[in-house]
Target: MEE20
Amino acid sequence: MHLTVSLSLPSGSISHERQRNHHHFLEKILTPLDTMMMKSTDESETKWKIDDAAELARDFWVERDGISALKLTEKTISDHGNHEKCSSHHELQGDIFYAQAKKTDDTDLKCLYLFASVDAYSMATLLSPNALTLRSFRGYARSLIKLGDQLRINKFYEKAVSKAKLGMSITSPQGKSTEGGYFTKIKTELQNWIDLATTKMQATVAVSDIGTMDNQKEPGEEDTSFDRLKKIWVKLDDKTKINFLVVDFEKLIGYIQDKHGTEVKEHFQKCIPIANNLRWRCWKCHICSQVNYCFTDCKMHILDNHVHNSEPDFSARPKCVDEILADMICCGDWKPVDTAEAENLIKDRAKRGEEFVYVNGWCSDWPEAKDRERENVLKQFAEVLKSSCAKENCTLSCTLWDWLRDYTEENLELPGVPGIYLDQCCFFKNPQCICFLDLKHLEHILKYFRQLTTDVRASLVPKVVNQFWENSQVKERIDLEGVATYNLLLDKRLLYEEELESDKIGTVEHYKSTGIFEDVMPKGDKIVSWILDCPEIDREFVSQMANGVHNSKLWLAALRIVRCVIRKKESYYDKRRKMLTYEKMLGEAETICDREDTRKNVNQRSTYESALRMKCEDLVGKQDDDTKCFLSVVRDVFERQSSPSFEVFEDKKCISELSSTVPNDDVKKSLLTLRKSLKEKFPLIDSKILQNKSTYEKLIDVFPKLSAVEYRLVVLPFVKKFLQDKLKKMMKTNSSSVAAGDSAERKPKKRHL
Ligand SMILES: [Zn+2]
Ligand SMILES: [Zn+2]
Model:
């Protein structure tokens, strides 16, 4: 077996070029004689740098600092692009994302990390498909199997087997016996993965109920102190109530220091936007740490600087069907038509000169077939078709629709019906014609369309991101008092009964507490529930927020997926370009053959074969893509290939060595076969491109939301705990003054402390 690497990699890394201008110490040492060596010296310097960074990153990882490891690898990869040596960085990212996937209980999050690790391993194996990346092949197969387990999709097991086999085909490095042992070990593991994936593919996966971790608090458990706190609250005078809105910063800090220690206190302080113009809420880029206060700005920053997506010329993009047709497809009933009866009906109407009237693609006159099987397959097909016609992102390409129409026209059996009559009714222009197909043909189109299944990631990533986004919403405003004291001024609406909307901006104003709360008239006891509704303090979260690394892993994993979708797009377009060139060159070959047919002097005609050979000889020395492709076409024709091969054909001599003689008939037949095969490939690639574009848009639409940073999520739990403490102290003094006798029973349960 041999390795084919089909993915096209973006050309030349700019930053690598830039690096060449900084030769550090080398400049002084090199003599003019050495300049010829410079390129290779520089290259080895780069290699050394990349390896060094990889080692350092792995050290971070070993010391459980996954975020630093990810950041270093990310930087190295963006500096050196697709340098072969970067494969170790991709591999490390694969390991980190895989470990993260293992750690999480949330199924969606787990899958997201697995997808990121799959892409990382995939890049590692593409950049350097040799003995060094054998580990990546193992990781690749392993992550794919886990994805198959999570999503219960066989495709992932299939891919796991193919990747593991690719790894198995790598030959071990010569010599070293210790390396050999390591090699054998990994190969055994690869074989195990192959066996496992094969078994899983065959087994019907039992649906096991793995409920997602429910973070909701247990209800039921009624807290008796809760009611008492409310009673106490009601008795308080307005001024005391209003005073709850002013959180004394000094006291709060003291409280945190007491309960959680210096480290947590320092982290907490870092999360307070003390300087003017800062906000509670911002958007942070997790690669270059740029902070924006507007979602759109942040999105633009990420797209411009870290995503690098470029759309090809409009003319090179496949078109999707228009809205009118999409609408026809979606509104249809899709019931099979009884063709025998329909035939009689057509003949009858044709005789009388009547036509079938279609309204929005459908005509109700056609007799329905009572055929359960046909109905069922047609229903499934209609669902696939409808799902590709969604209003905002239509992914049904014109070429695919044309293919479907041609296919229907070719395979529809209505003997004795004049074609002209059908054309008059626009029979084949309306989607209902598909309902005339028999079972065999319906099954064929269903299978064909199923190849274009939707990308799981297109729904998975938005689901994870939106969950994160929802969790980052905060309703309460918090302002600050003064310039020196920084008392926190809570939202006065907390003293009322009204429902609060999310505060998406998180501005911080500086007020005097006496000024803004002057006219507040407290109503109800909602604030007591608010104070008690409080998550436990999560020290790790607080520290990550203070250090600006909260969410970094998820952010980088999602970015990997976005970039993976873009690389896929580039490879699709690359393929499409090759197909277009092939189509053009196929036309050229046909023209050459036709020219022989049209020569007036029959004696001057040469065989197609020799005419094509002559053209090839004329092209000797030319290196452009068209020429190379023309040679591929000729070779495919001579070899009687059933489908085009898009590999570049470098060695022209091969043509002359190919096959002894190819009769004219065979050349003609071969040209026809190739054209037909090529024609079938366009709808597929066009649909994949449209599908990919839709996935990309869905991802990019939500991905930047992961940049959201909400400091109130750090601050509020501490404030609530602090206020609980304050309220409970009030209750203690209150109850001890009321009745000293049963104070033991009335002692509040320490629920939240
Ligand atoms: Zn250099
Ligand atoms: Zn950035």
Remarks:
- The longest strand covers residues 281-284.
- The chain has a mean pLDDT of 85.
- Residues 581 and 626 are 7 Å apart (CA to CA).
